[in-house]
């Protein structure tokens, strides 16, 4: 139910702020999405979409954090291995 | 797809699973609240990658599953009326009410339609001014901004033939109900990422402190979930009980403020009954007095209903994490997705449906073993139990 999918904004129609909509591309499928809750979103941003509404802009820097975390964890594990051996 | 595929990377998932195994020294029980996460955990076999010491319990975060039987009966009543177009998200259509489901009302001639968004229902109201268009507004905090916006726009545009049947529930009160229960086994929570996208995660800070339980706001892909579990285990092993955010690419501490503003404009916090769990104070949303004319219960003059659940269904215990789906004596036998006894077998996010879909071999395997005797005995006991009533 709380399923939400990331897609890329390819155009924005902002004539009416409450009805601010945009075309969002989900891996090739383009849908018209309500953008009222992401007023700062721009063309090219990725947004997380739930039942026709964008509810968050994907933070591209933070998106890589999980992989940095993994690298740090690996380094830590190697260090621990070295100290224990 | 970008922001999905990389979080399904097998190598990254394996690294997190190894890291979890490396830091786990004691048995820990962690609950994922959201049904979407339950589905991903069972589908990708994430629980099977974890050390034996880690138990995952599946929480009540399936709005379809916790919508009370009374409300489904009300939906069936409205949907059967001749001047009504009844609209709903797809997974509500097959949830059994007392005697039928929405699809059978449709088969009997009711105008029941599946929609992708509440705004589609609003559009139908504009296109069909001679009909009453009702939307079944089910959901957690994630869906509240969409449903609130449909009502807000109906009011702004003076669309009078639109109303919603509200069954909105809130996550933190349900979490507190689990934590304060005498049967609670949960030692840490994965908080539902998309709920937190909308409302943020400040509300969990006092809960973490009061009950000494860690919360990790977690995303929905396998690597997200494994990292969330890793962060939770690390807190447990270090004796910390803090609120941490794994899903940083989408969740901000304060949530989405413009969405919260429209929710507050249209809805107020009310007590709600949860199917299988019971009434929880301050655990849902209802329409504010200013929007009462969009309340389908009022529009169609539906009074209070009290109905009983099928006695064989243990979905309440499954939703609270007390039992696993395959510990139910009628799982996969009397209760299947084709003939569900409870909503947890209907929604793809229901724990029973996820186990049925992805763990069926185990059930078939079990039936040929000693376990089948236990199932038989338990079923007989249930039949006897029913006879006594």
Task: Report what the structure shows.
- The complex is a heterodimer of chains A (85) and B (389).
- With 85 residues, chain A is an alpha+beta fold.
- Chain A is 28% helix and 36% strand.
- Chain A contains 2 helices and 5 strands, in the order βββββαα.
- Chain A has helices spanning 60-63, 65-84; strands spanning 5-13, 21-26, 29-34, 46-50, 53-57.
- The N and C termini of chain A lie far apart (49 Å).
- The relative contact order of chain A is 0.17.
- Chain B is α/β, with parallel strands linked by helices.
- Chain B has 3 domains: 5-61 and 172-245, Rossmann fold (3-Layer(aba) Sandwich), CATH 3.40.50; 65-170 and 257-299, HypD, alpha/beta domain 2 (Rossmann fold), CATH 3.40.50; 315-388, no CATH class.
- Chain B has 17 helices and 11 strands.
- Chain B has helices spanning 10-23, 35-43, 63-66, 69-79, 102-107, 118-127, 144-157, 171-179, 193-199, 204-211, 222-238, 257-266, 296-299, 315-319, 351-358, 360-367, 371-388, and strands spanning 28-34, 54-61, 84-88, 111-114, 132-139, 162-169, 188-192, 215-218, 243-245, 267-274, 278-287.
- In chain B, strand 10 and strand 11 (278-287) form a beta hairpin.
- In chain B, helix 1 (10-23) runs parallel beside helix 11 (222-238) and helix 2 packs parallel to helix 15.
- The radius of gyration of chain B is 21 Å and the shape is globular.
- Mean pLDDT of chain B is 90; it is low at 364-389.
- At the A-B interface, strand 1, strand 4, strand 5, helix 1 and helix 2 of A face helix 1, helix 6, helix 7, helix 9 and helix 11 of B.
């Amino acid at each position: 139910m709380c399923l939400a999918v990331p897609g890329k904004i390819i155009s924005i129609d902002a004539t009416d702020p409450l009805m601010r909509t945009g075309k969002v591309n989900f891996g090739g499928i383009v849908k018209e999405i309500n953008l009222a809750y992401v007023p700062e979103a721009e063309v090219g941003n990725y947004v997380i979409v739930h039942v026709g509404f964008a509810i968050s802009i994907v933070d591209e820097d933070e998106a890589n954090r999980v992989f940095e975390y993994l690298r740090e964890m690996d380094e830590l594990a190697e260090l621990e291995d070295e100290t224990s051996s | 797809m970008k922001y999905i595929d990389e979080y399904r990377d097998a190598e990254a998932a394996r690294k997190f699973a190894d890291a979890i195994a490396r830091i786990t020294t004691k048995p820990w029980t962690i609950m994922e609240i959201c049904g979407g996460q339950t589905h991903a955990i069972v589908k990708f076999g994430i629980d099977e990658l974890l050390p034996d010491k880690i138990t995952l319990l599946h929480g009540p975060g399936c709005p379809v599953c916790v919508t009370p039987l009374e409300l489904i009966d009300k939906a069936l009543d409205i949907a059967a009326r001749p001047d009504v177009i009844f609209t709903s998200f797809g997974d509500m259509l097959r949830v059994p009410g007392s005697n039928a489901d929405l699809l059978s009302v449709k088969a009997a001639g009711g105008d029941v339609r599946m929609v992708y968004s509440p705004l589609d229902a609003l559009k139908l109201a504009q296109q069909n001014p001679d009909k009453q268009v009702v939307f079944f507004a089910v959901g957690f905090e994630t869906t509240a901004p969409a449903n609130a916006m449909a009502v807000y726009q109906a009011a702004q545009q003076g669309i009078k033939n639109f109303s919603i049947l509200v069954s909105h529930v809130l996550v933190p009160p349900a979490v507190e109900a689990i934590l304060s229960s005498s049967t609670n086994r949960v030692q840490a929570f994965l908080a539902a990422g998309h709920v937190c996208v909308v409302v943020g995660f400040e509300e969990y800070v006092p809960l973490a402190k009061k009950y000494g339980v860690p919360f990790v706001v977690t995303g929905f892909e396998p690597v997200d979930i494994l990292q969330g579990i890793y962060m939770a285990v690390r807190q447990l092993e270090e004796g910390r009980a803090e609120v941490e955010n794994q899903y940083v690419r989408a969740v901000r501490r304060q949530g989405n403020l413009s969405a919260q503003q429209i929710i507050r404009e249209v809805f107020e916090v009310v007590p709600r009954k949860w199917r299988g769990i019971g009434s929880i104070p301050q655990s849902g949303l209802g329409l504010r007095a200013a929007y009462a004319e969009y309340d389908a219960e009022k529009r169609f003059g539906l009074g209070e209903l009290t109905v009983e659940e099928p006695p064989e269904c243990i979905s309440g215990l499954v939703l609270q994490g007390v039992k696993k789906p395959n510990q139910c004596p009628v799982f996969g036998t009397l209760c299947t997705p084709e003939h569900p006894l409870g909503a947890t077998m209907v929604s793809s996010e229901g724990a029973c449906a996820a186990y049925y879909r992805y763990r069926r071999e185990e059930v078939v395997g079990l039936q040929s073993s000693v376990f089948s005797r236990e199932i038989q005995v338990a079923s007989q006991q249930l039949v006897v139990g029913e006879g006594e009533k």
